[in-house]
Model the fold of this input.
Amino acid sequence: MGDAEAAQIIDDEHESLTIFSRALELDGYETATATSAEAAIELINQAPPDAIMLVLNMPYINGLGFLYRLRGSRRGGAGVGAAATGDRGGRGDAAQHGHRPV
Done:
């Protein structure tokens, strides 16, 4: 990626990926998107981003599972913003692990 800050957006909903990607690009970020935690880990291993935005409520490996895997294979010093959707359980889990839902 060029001189711009790089952000990775992880969400299983394509519409959300498009919205967040466009918003960050308007702020000058170069964005990469992934629809699963597995795909996101692959992208991060290829080109670690400066920031990561993810949804906690995803199928297969959820957002917290992704964060645990990311910590285990930590690439770079990306800041992570997590968004919880759905039930309050996701918000409690995020707060318990030091990540504040946005």
About this structure: Strands lie at 6-10, 30-34, 51-55, 79-83. Residues 87-102 have pLDDT under 50 and may be disordered. DSSP finds four helices and four strands in the chain.
